[in-house]
Amino acid sequence: MEIHRLHRRFGHLLAEKLYRVLERSRHNNVNRKAVNYLTKYCSYYQKYGRSPGQFKFTLYKDLNFNHLVYIDIMYINSSLVLHIIDKVTRY
Question: Given phi > 0 = left and psi -120 to 50 = alpha, else beta, which region is 29?
Answer without folding.
Answer: alpha
